[in-house]
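## Example pair
The file below holds two records. Each record gives the amino-acid sequence first, followed by its structure token line.
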Amino acid sequence: MGNNNKDEEFRFPFSSFVGSRIGNFLQIAFRCGFDLEYTRRAILSLIIAIILEPFRWINRGIRFVTMPRGKKAAPPWFIVGYWRSGTTLMHQLLSEDPDFYYVTTFQTIFPELMFFQRPLKWVVQFFMPRRRPVDHLKLSLDDAQEEEIALANLFPYSFYHFLYFPNDYKNARDRSLYLDRMPPKRRQRWLRVYNRMILDAQKNKGGKRLLSKSPANTFRIKQLKEYYPGPKFIYLYRDPYSVLSSLNLFFTEVVKGVGFREIPNDEFNKCLLDLFIRMDEEYEKVKNDIGEENLVEVRFEDFIKAPLDTVVKIYEQFGETPSPDVVEKIKDRLAEYKGHKPGHYTIPPEIISLVNENLGDYLNKKGYEKVGSR
């Protein structure tokens, strides 16, 4: 798997899988195994997960008494599209609108310990890097975060088990991404767990509606559209040469930072290509059923040139207008990024070959030029 030089190592003595239920942890771990170099992290993570288990039960009891049951969240805004296509920046900018609530970084790591945030935040901040790998965007336990990380800790059907055990790609893909292929009871369980997580986020942040960011949800648009009446979808895309190269670096650093297994880089790239092709196929199947009033497609290269204008246009296409206060908050957030220098990378020849051999039709469809082999 690839390498990337950074000012700060994205490394932890334990994994973010410590927030998982013990049964979930052991089920995935026994199926996938551990690489020898990650044995210490695996043992430490399991010990911490065992220590936290009683607190999870206490949290569940408090939640059972205090949280409404059977309630669905208000129609959300879903940010979807392939990883490294600008979904994180879009999520952060829209999160400046106080009408939105969202899953935080803390909730993704400890989704069933929300009533113990203060002491756990105090501990975790000593181990948490200040920046994400590759793009070096700021990391904060209170920032908007991708909810698939929380799902990996909640039950056995999350694609992000792939980040802990990349050798188990096919299982992670088939068990979690295709909700329409799940047995009905498992699908309903997935939706209940997802909605419960959303309601916890609302109680934590306040606000009227969910702002969701999860590339994996690109596979689940049909089911989410049926479960939440009237949702809005923001789909981002980017040239596949850059997106696959960047994702290789990003996922590699995440796996090395919190995972337990590795796979050869060429095999890893094939997994990412397979994921790209399958995601595009699923999106093309459902996009016409969403409705123009509920879908915005955003080209990364345009978004990054004019982020504020892009966000305002999204509101307008959804029949809304951001308040002046929200616009100012977005401007302030963008000002924080002035002078920001993301990690630099070159597109390796193997990515060029994979894209040229497999994604010619996609390049033509999206208006990207084919890069010559080197």
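Second record, same layout:
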Amino acid sequence: MKRQLWLAVLVTFFFLSFTGAGLSKDPKAPKKTKELVSTGKKLYETSCASCHGVKGEGKGPAAAALNPHPVDFAQPLKDWPNTKGNPEKIFEVISDGIPNSAMVAWKQLSEKERWGLVYYVMGFSTGKK
């Protein structure tokens, strides 16, 4: 009986390992839509602008008191710390926060809302330093 149980556990483990089933994966970026960006804009204005600023330049009313300072989203995407403008990495930062900073995790937001924020903040990037 013990042998059959172990065999069942091993078979299940290998099945899950090779198929990827049962393993959590980072969500892939959904298609950018006006609806997602609009959702992100509303959330940004109520939850993010106080630190990152209305224009995303990292100069919100609370920014002066924060160390490290909030990210300036107006800089080129490739220069963004922690993410280099990668949408999946931006999603991770929004979801998990940044240790030893004021950037908290926003897991209470739905996945759709977090993707809306990703697309909205990426829109601040001017491509110029």
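Notes on the second record: The helical segments are 2-19, 34-47, 49-52, 87-96, 111-122. The chain has five helices and no strands.
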